[in-house]
């Protein structure tokens, strides 16, 4: 039987994030986002060499900083250039749960022109998470029209 090029349980793209304090990050992601820990390989000195969590059917890989291998997290880098987006059934509850777990609100929850209700938080480890609930199907043409209106009002 041939082996699929994507292992069972994974999607084609799987984010891998590096954090300072991966064991604490795993606990945070469980509390804040309802993550399930799939696997964890501990490294020296209580570090986490590699772990995988699942949030709503999607996996995220993570591990502790290992500067000797070039792995540095947002705290060491002074920020991050990317973020993760998670769709959840109730974004308002999800943001409240994330804040209660220790996240800081970056953008408050509000309805978006593209049909989502979303807000953005920064986790205690420097990663940026946009949490969203899809509330309206919007055609690309309508989205473009709304985007143009939004850009005018933002200027």
Automatic annotation (TrEMBL):
Record keyword Oxidoreductase present: yes
Organism taxonomic ancestry: Bacteria, Pseudomonadati, Planctomycetota, Planctomycetia, Gemmatales
One GO molecular-function entry: dioxygenase activity
Keywords: Dioxygenase, Oxidoreductase
Residue span(s) of domain VOC: 9-134
Name recorded for this polypeptide: VOC domain-containing protein
SUPFAM superfamilies: Glyoxalase/Bleomycin resistance protein/Dihydroxybiphenyl dioxygenase (SSF54593)
InterPro entries documented for this protein: Glyas_Bleomycin-R_OHBP_Dase, Glyas_Fos-R_dOase_dom, VOC_core
């Amino acid at each position: 039987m041939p082996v699929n090029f994507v292992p069972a349980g994974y999607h084609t793209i799987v984010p891998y994030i590096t954090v300072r304090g991966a064991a604490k990050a795993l606990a945070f992601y469980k509390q804040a986002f309802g993550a399930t820990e799939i696997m964890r390989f501990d490294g020296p000195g209580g570090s986490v060499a590699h772990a995988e969590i699942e949030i709503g059917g999607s996996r995220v890989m993570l591990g502790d900083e290992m500067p000797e291998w070039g792995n540095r997290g947002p705290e060491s880098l002074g920020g991050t250039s990317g973020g993760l987006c998670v769709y959840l059934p109730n974004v308002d509850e999800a943001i409240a749960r994330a804040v209660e777990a220790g996240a800081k609100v970056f953008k408050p929850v509000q309805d978006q022109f593209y049909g989502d209700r979303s807000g953005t938080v920064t986790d205690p480890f420097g990663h940026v998470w946009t949490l969203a609930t899809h509330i309206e199907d919007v055609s690309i043409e309508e989205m473009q029209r709304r985007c143009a209106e939004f850009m005018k009002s933002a200027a």
